Amino acid sequence: GATVLTGFETKAITPGTYFYDAPMKFKGTKEKKSWKEFGNIDDLRALQVSSNVYMFNTALKIAGVDYVKNSSLNIKQEYFDKMRYYFRQ
Fold it and tell me: Which residue ranges does the record assign to the Penicillin-binding protein transpeptidase domain (predicted)?
């Protein structure tokens, strides 16, 4: 729940935010996915089913990055630091 809570606290997402749970692919990496595809899910359902994809999408929103299939990720260090800060709370 730390990723979702961080999303709330940074205003990257709000309660009831939906993401589509399907495999994600970033340039130079293996496919990222949940243990099964859940389709369109909100924060509560994502926590219930342990959706990896929901957490990936939340982290991207915290970093201000939009997901584009097969694209490179260019995330500034400040966003990793922000995640670490909130995870320590």
Answer: 2-63
Indicate the angle between helix axes 77-87 and 2-9, nearest 10 degrees. 110
For the chain, domain boundaries: 2-87
In one-letter notation, the amino acid at residue 42 is D
Strands (E) in the chain, as ranges, are: 18-21, 39-42
The reply to whether the predicted model has a pTM over 0.85 is: yes
75 vs 89: CA distance, rounded Å:
22
Q: Which residues contact 31 (CB under 8 A, 6 or more apart)?
A: 23, 24, 25
CA distance 68 to 85: 27
Q: pLDDT of 20-33, one tens digit each?
A: 999 999 999 999 99
